[in-house]
Structures are given as structure tokens and as C-alpha cells.
């Protein structure tokens, strides 16, 4: 059982959100006041807005909200650094002042009414509670299908993400600290979080449409994000190159048999046997060579990321 009245910080990354932010703030601050009144979270709980180098009035709005209420804090990044980095900045700023964080997008497409449920699960002993969308009717067809394909691909590659979970989640203080130990530049937080260990749970909700403003994730950014997700967690694509090489070698063998029969039956032209065999053999060796080099590059990649080796849950008799 966790402590009774944890201090909650809700971390909200904002990029050009001047239209959505006032609405979102109204709903979030209402929720936080209610939760404090009910005694489910501590009185020092706050909303922390991270301005990810917006080019509109987002920061002015955050400053104004903060001057009006001591429940609001803000962090302004010097330039647009991307959603994942903005989220990390917010978590890093929040972690020293709170027991639990909830991260949520500024457009409130995720249902804030499950936050009390998340806190409940935390008090029941969970360290991470994932918000999972039940359906995504409100997203465009393109977004839905590409996201579906992406989650399936990630699963195939063994990346272990939670389907239909974006970055709406509760994290306890120690899991945020553990997350901050992952120093890699290519951040794919939702892949790391499932690897931290610790007890996790899910709460389910329906995803709404954006309150106002427009998506800061056009197709180009989404693709980059997907590629980051795959390449940060999996060296399987390199193995595929190697397997292709092996396949080519097999084809070369089949070609050898084919060529020999053709020659024996007198159905071959001069120059063709050596040419066709070289094509497949050289191709096979190049691919196998690339695969081997790729294995080493993959190892270097893993070392360079310098990820923590483990996270400790509890200890006994070690004071
Ligand atoms: N965001 C950000 N930096 C960016 C792009 C987006 O901090 O470069 C924030 C944005 O303000 C929002 C969240 O990330 O709070 C999710 O973005 P968005 O809603 O535009 O993406 P979608 O829900 O369409 O995937
Ligand atoms: Mg959104």
C-alpha cells in the first residue's frame, strides 16, 4: 500500500496550443481541485505546462495562468525539441516536487476523468498506470490505420509497446527517476516505460477529438517517430539483411543446379553460366557481409545508449 495522499503533478507538453490550452486548463484545474477536496491527492499538487518552443502565445498564456494561481507551473524550452523531449523536460522538473506524475497531451484527447482511477491504482500498489484507448473513432482513417500497422510491426519486432497507449500515463516518482536514467537522444518513451520493470496496470477510456487547434504531428513527424521507435529498440532489421544474404546463397545453389542441367542438356549460351552464378553469389556475400557488420554496429549502438542495466524494486536487510 502506497502513502495516503500523494502529491500529483500533471505534466502537459504544449506546442502552439494557444487555442486549446485555456479550455484544457479549465478542465484540468477543476479536476485537480476536486481531487484535492476529496483527499485523494495532496494539497501541493500542480499542473506543469511545458512550452515546447511554441511560435504563438502559448507561453504568455502559461505565464498568465501561473500568475493567477499557485497551482500552475511552467517550463519554457528554448526551441521546439519535440513532444518526447518536452515530456522528459516536464517530468524531470516535476519529479523533485511530487510523488506521482501524470502526463497528458494539451489537446485533452485523452479522457482526464480516468486520472482519479489511475491514482487509485497507484495507491493500490502500482508504479505505472497506462491510459489505453478503447477505440479511436475520433482519429482520422489515415491515423488509425497507420497507428494500427505501427503497433503490430512493433510487436513483431519485439519492442513491447502497449497497443493504443500513447503518452497518457501515471508514473510514480521512482519510475520517473529510472526513466531519466535513460540518456539516449532518440527518445521513444512509451517503449522504455514498459521495460522499466515495476508493477503496472491499465485504465481504459474512449479517445475524444482535439478540443481546438490542430495536430502538431503531421505524417512526416509521425513517420520519423515510428522509425525512431523501431530503430531505438530493435536490431531485427539488421538480422533481416543477414537472412536475405543466406536466402541469396540458397538461390545461388539452386541456380548452380539449374545451370549445370542446362549445360548438360546443351541449352546454355557461352558466358551465361558464369555470369548468372556470379550475380547470385556476389549478392549473397555482400548481404551476409553487411549483416555481420550490422551485428557489430548494433552492439556499438546498444553500448553507446548506455542504458541502465536494471532497476531495483525493493531490498531487505540492507540499511
Ligand atoms: N507537441 C509538442 N511538441 C511538438 C509537437 C507536439 O510538445 O513538436 C505536443 C502537443 O502540444 C500536444 C502533444 O504533444 O500536447 C501531442 O501532439 P498532437 O495532439 O498535436 O498530436 P496527435 O494527438 O495528433 O498525435
Ligand atoms: Mg492530439
Biggest sheet overview:
7 strands, mixed
Number of strands: 7
Q: Based on Cα principal axes, name the global outline.
A: elongated
CATH architecture of the largest domain: Alpha-Beta Complex
Average predicted confidence as pLDDT:
88
The ordered H/E elements are EHEHEHEHEHEHHEHHH
End-to-end C-alpha gap: 21 Å
Q: How much helix, percentage-wise, in residues?
A: 40-55%
Count of spatially separate domains? 2
CATH topology of the largest domain: Spore Coat Polysaccharide Biosynthesis Protein SpsA, Chain A
Structural class: alpha/beta
User: What percent of residues are in strands?
Assistant: 5-15%
Largest beta sheet: strand ordering: 3-2-1-4-6-5-7
- How large is the radius of gyration? 26 Å
Supply the CATH class of the largest domain.
Alpha Beta
The distinct ligands, each listed once, are: uridine-5'-diphosphate, magnesium ion
What would CATH call the homologous superfamily of the largest domain?
Spore Coat Polysaccharide Biosynthesis Protein SpsA, Chain A
How would you describe what is shown here?
The protein has 319 residues and is α/β, with parallel strands linked by helices. The chain folds into two domains: 8-233 and 307-316, Spore Coat Polysaccharide Biosynthesis Protein SpsA, Chain A (Alpha-Beta Complex); 236-305. Helices cover 50% and strands 12% of the residues. A seven-stranded mixed beta sheet has the order 3-2-1-4-6-5-7, with helices on both faces. α2 links the parallel β2 and β3 (72-76). The model has no long low-confidence stretch (mean pLDDT 88). The protein binds uridine-5'-diphosphate and magnesium ion. Residues 13-15, 17, 52, 80, 82-83, 86, 105-107, 109, 215-217 line the site of uridine-5'-diphosphate (UDP).
Amino acid at each position: 500500500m502506497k502513502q495516503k495522499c500523494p502529491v500529483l503533478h500533471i505534466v502537459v507538453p504544449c506546442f502552439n496550443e494557444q487555442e486549446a490550452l485555456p479550455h484544457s486548463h479549465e478542465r484540468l484545474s477543476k479536476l485537480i481541485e476536486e481531487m484535492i477536496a476529496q483527499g485523494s491527492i495532496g494539497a501541493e499538487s500542480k499542473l506543469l505546462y511545458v512550452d515546447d518552443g511554441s511560435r504563438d502565445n502559448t507561453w504568455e498564456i502559461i505565464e498568465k495562468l501561473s500568475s493567477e494561481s499557485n497551482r500552475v507551473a511552467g517550463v519554457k524550452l528554448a526551441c521546439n525539441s519535440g513532444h518526447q523531449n518536452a515530456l522528459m523536460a516536464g517530468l524531470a522538473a516535476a519529479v523533485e516536487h511530487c510523488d506521482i506524475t501524470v502526463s497528458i497531451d494539451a489537446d485533452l484527447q485523452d479522457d482526464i476523468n480516468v486520472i482519479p482511477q489511475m491514482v487509485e491504482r497507484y495507491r493500490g500498489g502500482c508504479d505505472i498506470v497506462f491510459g489505453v484507448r478503447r477505440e479511436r473513432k475520433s482519429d482520422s482513417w489515415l491515423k488509425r490505420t497507420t497507428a494500427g500497422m505501427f503497433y503490430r510491426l512493433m510487436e513483431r519486432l519485439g519492442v513491447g509497446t502497449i497497443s493504443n497507449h500513447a503518452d497518457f500515463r501515471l508514473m510514480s516518482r521512482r519510475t520517473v527517476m529510472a526513466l531519466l536514467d535513460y540518456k539516449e537522444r532518440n527518445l521513444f518513451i512509451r517503449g522504455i516505460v514498459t521495460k522499466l520493470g515495476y508493477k503496472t496496470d491499465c485504465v481504459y477510456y474512449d479517445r475524444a477529438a482535439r478540443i481546438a487547434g490542430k495536430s502538431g504531428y503531421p505524417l512526416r513527424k509521425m513517420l520519423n517517430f515510428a522509425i525512431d521507435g523501431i530503430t531505438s529498440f530493435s536490431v531485427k532489421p539488421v538480422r533481416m539483411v543477414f537472412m536475405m544474404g543466406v536466402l541469396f546463397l540458397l538461390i545461388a545453389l539452386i541456380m548452380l543446379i539449374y545451370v549445370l542441367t542446362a549445360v548438360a542438356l546443351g541449352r546454355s549460351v557461352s558466358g551465361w553460366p558464369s555470369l548468372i552464378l556470379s550475380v547470385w553469389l556476389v549478392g549473397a556475400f555482400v548481404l551476409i557481409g553487411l549483416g555481420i557488420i550490422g551485428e557489430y554496429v548494433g552492439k556499438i549502438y546498444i553500448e553507446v545508449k548506455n542504458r541502465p542495466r536494471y532497476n531495483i524494486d525493493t531490498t531487505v536487510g540492507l540499511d
